[in-house]
């Protein structure tokens, strides 16, 4: 075999706090260690949102906050939390890159925009004990295989790769999308109050069984939107993180009205915008949306393998919460460049919960899920 390519997206390693939704360290580390022992070269593509910097707090002394002016010092402090919480995964990656034929590619997503800081990249290389076979990029391409995170086809989470930073107060700060600024300064309180609810899909079902959250969410969104348009741009005139891109207004309004925050048109937009590239590829992998999607046509496949975060599917009738399996894309490339692919499913270790029990004690069930996955929480 010429090469094996493994594509894993939306792992979302967090800071080990209540807002960290990744608990499958054992399963993931085991998979990476298996890859490290292969006899042929392996490309491991972590397809964006590998780290959840967005929902990771900045802890300084006794204060915990979600600052919107994200300097490299703040990103590094968050990275340290993530490293401490998920050392098992870092250790496995370290073992993987030790072999110089192997390549580790970090594709940048909207939750790990912080990877644009070269100091953050350097620190990761330091943690993994290697420099050469680790890369940070916006997309991965090898012959007829292509992967990118997909936030560029999502109006609200689109990043600006050519201007990843603002200059503010003489310092470089991250130029993250408007929605990310909103999440950081308005919705993290809600996420801390309802850490488990945010792991449950589909949203309309969750909302229909939990009216209180709908009220809180609509009120928060409306308040933030109004302030963003009418007040913040004046109050914080010199602060680039409060610039409001007007073209978002219509889209946001439409989404609030429909209580529709999930993005469902990424594949369609991707197919239109990258039609020339798509014609040249055989396997195309996107992330960002946390749903499994496979589209095979004319000897070509487009795949969303879904997330590695701890997520559940709510059954409307029984009100049971079933943990979603984790998935990754595996491509085998033969010496003559011919390839075969498969979407591999990893069964969850966590068990099934009842929605009504979870709602009564969200933190308790966050702990229970972690316990079942063998992940130690520190809160
Ligand atoms: Mn994303």
Do you know the CATH topology? Answer: Purple Acid Phosphatase, chain A, domain 2
Beta-strand portion reads 15-25%
CATH superfamily: Metallo-dependent phosphatases
CATH-defined architecture: 4-Layer Sandwich
Question: How are the strands ordered across the major sheet?
Answer: 6-5-2-1-17-18
CATH class: Alpha Beta
Q: How many strand units?
A: 19
Shape: globular
Biggest sheet overview: 6 strands, mixed
Structural class: alpha/beta
Mean residue pLDDT: 93
Percent range of helical residues = 25-40%
CA-to-CA gap between the ends? 46 Å
State Rg.
20 Å
Topology readout:
Blueprint: E1 3-8, H1 25-36, E2 42-47, E3 58-60, E4 63-65, H2 72-85, H3 87-98, E5 103-107, H4 118-128, E6 134-137, E7 139-142, E8 145-148, E9 165-168, E10 171-174, H5 178-193, E11 200-201, H6 203-209, H7 211-235, H8 248-257, H9 266-273, H10 275-280, E12 283-286, E13 293-297, E14 300-304, E15 312-314, E16 320-323, E17 326-333, E18 339-346, E19 353-354, H11 355-360, H12 362-373
Parallel strand pairs: 1-2, 2-5, 5-6, 8-12, 11-15, 12-14
Antiparallel strand pairs: 1-17, 3-4, 7-8, 9-10, 13-14, 15-16, 16-19, 17-18
This protein binds manganese (II) ion.
């Amino acid at each position: 075999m010429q090469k094996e390519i493994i594509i894993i997206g939306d792992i979302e390693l967090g800071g080990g706090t209540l807002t960290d939704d990744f608990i499958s360290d054992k399963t993931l580390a085991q998979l990476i260690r298996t890859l490290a022992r292969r006899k042929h070269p392996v490309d491991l593509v972590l397809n964006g949102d590998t780290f959840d910097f967005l929902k990771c707090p900045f802890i300084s002394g006794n204060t915990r906050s979600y600052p919107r002016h994200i300097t490299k010092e703040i990103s590094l402090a968050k990275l340290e939390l993530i490293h401490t919480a998920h050392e098992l995964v870092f250790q496995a990656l370290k073992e993987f890159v030790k072999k110089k034929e192997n390549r580790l590619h970090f594709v940048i997503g909207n939750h790990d925009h912080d990877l644009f800081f070269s100091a953050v990249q350097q620190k990761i290389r330091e943690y993994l004990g290697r420099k050469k076979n680790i890369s940070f990029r916006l997309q991965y391409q090898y012959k007829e295989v292509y992967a990118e995170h997909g936030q560029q086809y999502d109006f609200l989470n689109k990043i600006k790769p050519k201007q990843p930073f603002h200059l503010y107060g003489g310092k470089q700060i991250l130029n993250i999308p408007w929605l990310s600024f909103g999440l950081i300064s308005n919705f993290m309180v809600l996420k801390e109050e309802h850490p488990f609810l945010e792991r449950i899909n589909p949203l309309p079902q969750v909302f229909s069984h939990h009216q209180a959250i709908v009220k809180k969410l609509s009120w928060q969104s409306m308040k933030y939107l109004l302030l963003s348009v009418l007040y913040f741009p004046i109050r914080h005139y010199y602060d680039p993180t409060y610039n409001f891109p007007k073209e978002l207004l219509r889209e946001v309004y439409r989404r609030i009205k429909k209580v529709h925050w999930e993005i469902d048109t990424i594949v369609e937009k991707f197919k239109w915008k990258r039609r020339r590239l798509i014609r040249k590829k055989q396997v195309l992998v996107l992330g960002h949306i946390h749903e499994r999607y496979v589209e095979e046509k004319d000897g070509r496949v487009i795949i969303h393998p879904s997330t590695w975060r701890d997520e559940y599917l709510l059954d409307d009738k029984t009100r049971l919460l079933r943990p979603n399996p984790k998935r990754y894309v595996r491509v085998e490339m033969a010496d003559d460049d011919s390839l075969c692919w498969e979407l591999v499913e990893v069964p969850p270790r966590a068990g099934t919960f009842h929605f009504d029990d979870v709602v009564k004690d969200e933190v308790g069930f966050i702990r229970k899920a972690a316990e079942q996955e063998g992940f130690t929480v520190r809160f």
